[in-house]
Amino acid sequence: GENVEQHPSTLSVQEGDSAVIKCTYSDSASNYFPWYKQELGKRPQLIIDIRSNVGEKKDQRIAVTLNKTAKHFSLHITETQPEDSAVYFCAASPPGSYQLTFGKGTKLSVIP
Amino acid sequence: NAGVTQTPKFQVLKTGQSMTLQCAQDMNHNSMYWYRQDPGMGLRLIYYSASEGTTDKGEVPNGYNVSRLNKREFSLRLESAAPSQTSVYFCASSPETGRPYEQYFGPGTRLTVT
Questions:
Q1: CA of B60: which chain A residue's CA is closest?
Q2: What does the pLDDT look like over A78-99, one tens digit per residue?
């Protein structure tokens, strides 16, 4: 089955700096890659996603890039703010299935 | 519109006891999922149901059973709880059309087995 590796496991940045989280996946057939944000004590919520036919997608301060050849995708957060502090999970889904395989998460801390 | 709801929010069990975690969604979604979340392990799929009347095993199904009671409800049962099942359990659902990959999560159930 699919295996998703996520790095780093923890990340601290100064407010206003950028943060980058990287994930690799094992199944070259996977075609959907979402990112979820989980604030402390809350449920995971989708923040951005990308399909395999697209190389990059942006939504305000958040962007995701996908390199199908290398089988990795990344989350980029620019101009970080304290409210960006949370655990971020990447995931991958193979075609024909709506199941998601999640990475182990990255705890992002934005220092004011 | 409550979205995905779960009961109970918290539960403490003794080893060997049984219990059922309840999940319901009011978004008319076809697919429903049960995950467990452990520190440093991310979210791992226990069971999922692609539609009413069907269930399939996920990554970590041992020690659990599920029932898709109807389109709205998907329950997770622990027949004989073990300390290794101490975890936070999330239920999720996703629609059949539009954005079928987008999963909506419930608030979670924090289970401790002593």
A1: A101
A2: 999 999 999 999 999 987 777 8
